[in-house]
Amino acid sequence: VINIFSFSKAFALAGFRVGYIAINAGAGEEAQDAYNQMLKVQDTIPICPARPSQVAAMGALSAGRDWVAQQVVTLDEGRAAIMDAIQPLGTVMGGSGAMYVMAKLPKGMDDREVGEMLVEKHGIAIIPGSFCGFPGWIRVCYSNLDPERCKLAAERLS
């Protein structure tokens, strides 16, 4: 068995591009051969993640699972507030594995215009869905806001 891990979900370091592979020292010959093939691929790309990503990963490991568990609680509170605010739009996706949700806008609404209006009138920045391949949708990220700020943003979105 070869285990492949990412810090993206386990330690909320999405975008840092840090991960690792673990193989039991007593693994069978097939597993060892597969691992050796992975090393050949690794040699053809940059040898390591950027230094800030490495430092962040070490910090995450040092902080441990208790810190991660607290962050999950914090993210859940923020997600719930945002979901409550955008649920009236009808079709909403995401939030279970990502730190953003997607909401379908009512027919005829331009996602870019909605994005501009939210920034200009309400001080809320979203990503128009057309930037992500989903025209007519909006993407609302809640990962960098504490629950109180998510609640404030949710009030403005309502």
UniProtKB/TrEMBL annotation:
Its cofactor is pyridoxal 5'-phosphate. Gene3D superfamilies: Type I PLP-dependent aspartate aminotransferase-like (Major domain) (3.40.640.10). It comes from the Eukaryota. InterPro entries: Aminotransferase_I/II_large (IPR004839), AspAT/PAT-like (IPR050596), NHTrfase_class1_PyrdxlP-BS (IPR004838), PyrdxlP-dep_Trfase (IPR015424), PyrdxlP-dep_Trfase_major (IPR015421). GO terms for biological process: amino acid metabolic process. It holds the Pfam family Aminotran_1_2. GO terms for molecular function: pyridoxal phosphate binding; transaminase activity. Keywords: Aminotransferase, Pyridoxal phosphate, Transferase. Residues 6-157 form the Aminotransferase class I/classII large domain. Belongs to the class-I pyridoxal-phosphate-dependent aminotransferase family. This is Aminotransferase class I/classII large domain-containing protein. It comes from Pseudictyota dubia.
